[in-house]
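Q: Could you predict the 3D structure of MarR-like DNA-binding transcriptional regulator SgrR of sgrS sRNA?
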Amino acid sequence: MFEHYIKLYFNGREKRNFPTVEMTLDEISTLLFCTNRNSKLVIDRLIKGQWIEWAPGRGRGNKSRMTFLENPEALLSAMCKEMVQNGDLQNASKYMEEYQTFFPKLMDQFKEWMESLFGFHQEETIEGKKDILRLKVNITSFFPSLDPKWAQLRSQSHVVKQLFDTLVVFDPRTKTIKPHLAFHWEYDEQRFKWTFYIRKGVFFHDGTPLRAEHAAKSLLELKFDRSHPFQWMLSQVESIEATEEYIVELVLKETHAFFLSILADERCSIVRYNQNAEGHEPLIGTGPFSLEKLNDDRLIIKANDHYFNGRPFLDFVELWNEESIPGLKEAGSSAFEFMSYVHPSDPESSGNRTKSIEWNTQFVSINTRKQGVCQNNNFRKLLHSILDPALMKKELGGPRGDIANGILPGAAEIKRDSVSEADLLRTSGYKGETLKLYTFTDQDHVEETAWIIERCADYGIKIEASFFPGIELLQNHRLEEADLVHDSANMTEQMEMCFLHHFLSSNSVLKIHLSEAAMIEVEAILLRMVKMSEREERLQCLREIENIMVSKTHILPLYRNQSVIEYNQDVQNIQLTSDGWVEFDRVWFKK
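A: Sure. Here are the predicted structure tokens for MarR-like DNA-binding transcriptional regulator SgrR of sgrS sRNA:
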């Protein structure tokens, strides 16, 4: 209807006595490219919408009179705002782009309005006043699945943790495993047979009471579903059984030092399947929030009023996809209105600070499993010499962190090869072929990939880059066909678990790219590590693996960042997860 109104409005604006103009039905039909019958239908809709008044001409030669009641710029603004508030970001985007030439100032006004939406708000709803935290996220599209066993991205894992719970949890403050859905557990002398006692009074989001059978079925699904990447997690489990209404028993094939840590992982969340009329089985959890809405534009979660571990302060958390609508990237801060991510070395302002014990290391993985020049050690040494992270940081600038010498924090400095780059190139086996470099669509990856291509071109090495959304890049066939992948690795206080994920998950770039000989070495070290009870012994195993990766140039470490946020005085109990996100169920606001 708006398209018709704006055509009539701009045509009428050129006539005498505007905003009341004389027009015949034939003139309207010609303007709208439709029949007289359809023109009458358009006029009726505009009258009902109170956009025009219409006085039909009576008698031969008497024209009808149309009075325009609404300013089209105000109409467009109101329409797009209503679309955004109803979650229809795609159409709001379409209308804004289509008509911004008509109303050149409107886009800036719309950006200002968008900016006002983000951060913490108290808003009136039909259920009363609600506390809402509205954030924008930099992802191409939301996740195709929130099934915990498919949690592959950091953002995806964080949302899963809001919706679902595990039997036990890792407490980063005490660095211990603590009870959660299971309030107690015990094991036999050999630590083969584990018995977990399920907490009473816990309910799924649909009101179904939690029972041991739900825990058993969830873990069995994870163990026997062969389609997901995390087969290794319960491979050491021989059997899973709900022996009583609130007791679940797991029997292991052999002892495993990280069994409880595995059960605390979000992929081991306890879920319930809800068979609906369409035959789909959406998963239901017991977490602090329930899923309210999920589409390509927005993800909304709602507080669980009956959460066994304490109801969240926030009533709703909304994540908006900044790719969905013009101006969203520029609106507000990159995270919260009330906080920002800063570098640890930045001088502190008047705000408070908190940091996560989480290290994110950017690196380039070299596919030594694929036949080709990347299997030549001198070629990999050449890339290591060319792609100097100190030079990258100097030339690109921006919020890039400390130079990384490996994946682990505190890794020893890497010695650059004493052989000249010219000699390395001569003995590299490189014959002018084009190498495929795959990475994510994030801006930092795009900038760094352009730098890598330019540096390699200086030495006659041809690189062709392709950029993919997170889920799409983490496909086995995609990683297998790439010669190089620009990726990142997270290290938390549970570094051993991080390494198990990086080298045992079937779609891990490190597992897929590592040569068969190197992978045999790594798996042997991991097998030793999972039987060790002493932490320092286990960390030595991680250093051995890192040495294989770095000394044999399977990866090229670039730089690492530590998540640090600065926030204002109104924010209370702010805590960062190991994924660098804020704990939505803990944070609250004074105002």
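Q: Anything worth pointing out?
A: The domain at 2-70 is CATH 1.10.10.10 (Arc Repressor Mutant, subunit A).
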